[in-house]
Amino acid sequence: MIKFIATDIDGTILAQGASFTDGVKSCINDLKERGVKVVIVTGRMNKAALLIRDELELDTPVVSYQGGLVNDGGNVLYERYLSETQTKKIIEWARAEKIHINLYNDDTLYSEFDNEEVRRYSKAQRIDYKVKPFDEIKLDKVNKVLAIDFDNADRIDRYEKELPGEFPELYIVKSTPHFLEFSNPEGSKYCAVKFLQEYWGIKQSETLAIGDQNNDIELLRAGGIKVAMGNASDELKGVADYITDTVYNDGFVKAVEKFVYGK
């Protein structure tokens, strides 16, 4: 019996540039009425994730920053930061590579430049940002760093393969074809979902995990039932137990119907 559904947002329950479908909203409402805990588990910052939780009228904790923060109505249940030394090393790397990075410190988004990357990102996430030299920021609560290249997905692919050797102490993962995330190794989706399983006394076998990108590999690892979207990356499909329909065809709903409702 499924008691806990841990779901990614973008590409899983929400298509890019779209709104939540009536099918997804109705499904989530029904799950709530049945007492199934539905938790959004996302790479988005906490402020952006809370907008989604409120829109879906969920009353469960939010997992943001790839798992670096589990927040329940302002009550922090679990949190992992990058150290100041680790953050400075990433900043130096980004400057050398001439790639844009978003810096998330104490749930505030910072950019060194007011450029197309941060403007496009913040508009899509419906959040504000601050432009400030990173050297002037006290790097004591850095939840994650995000590298962005909207023009060259091959570059992000290459970094995902190469950088774990240069930064062995970090969790580095591609979250979209254009985003590369740097986090604390204990700040993964796997770690956050395992924390909630223990917090609620829910077994892994009672958990359904569903996602669409490489950063959801860790999410699926925590689930007893591992579901990849039809639009998922090949890497994620390779670790899934089941591949559902795409986000455009309510693949999330169809997975729930199969594994929760037994249809």
Share of residues in strands: 15-25%
Give start-end ranges of low-pLDDT stretches. Answer: none
Major sheet details: 6 strands, mixed
Number of helices: 9
**What order do the helices and strands follow?**
EHEHEEEHEEHEEHEEHEHEHEH
Mean pLDDT across every amino acid position: 96
Q: Any idea what the CATH architecture of the largest domain is?
A: 3-Layer(aba) Sandwich
Layout of strands and helices, then pairs:
Blueprint (H helix, E strand, L loop, with lengths): L3 E4 L14 H12 L3 E4 L5 H11 L5 E3 L4 E4 L2 E5 L4 H14 L2 E6 L2 E4 L4 H10 L4 E2 L10 E7 L4 H14 L4 E6 L2 E5 L5 H12 L6 E5 L5 H5 L3 E4 L5 H6 L2 E2 L7 H9 L4
Parallel strand pairs: 1-2, 1-12, 7-8, 12-13, 13-14
Antiparallel strand pairs: 3-4, 4-5, 6-7, 6-9, 9-11, 10-11
Give a brief rundown of this model.
The chain is α/β, with parallel strands linked by helices and 263 residues long. The protein is 35% helix and 23% strand.
Folded structure, characterized:
With 263 residues, the protein is α/β, with parallel strands linked by helices. The chain folds into two domains: 4-79 and 187-259, HAD superfamily/HAD-like (Rossmann fold); 84-183, Hypothetical Protein, Haloacid Dehalogenase-like Hydrolase, Chain: A, domain 2, CATH 3.30.1240. Helix content is 35%, strand content 23%. It contains nine helices and 14 strands. It has helices spanning 22-33, 46-56, 84-97, 116-125, 153-166, 189-200, 217-221, 234-239, 251-259; strands at residues 4-7, 37-40, 62-64, 69-72, 75-79, 100-105, 108-111, 130-131, 142-148, 171-176, 179-183, 207-211, 225-228, 242-243. It has a six-stranded mixed β-sheet, with helices on one face. The radius of gyration is 18 Å and the shape is globular. The model has no long low-confidence stretch (mean pLDDT 96).
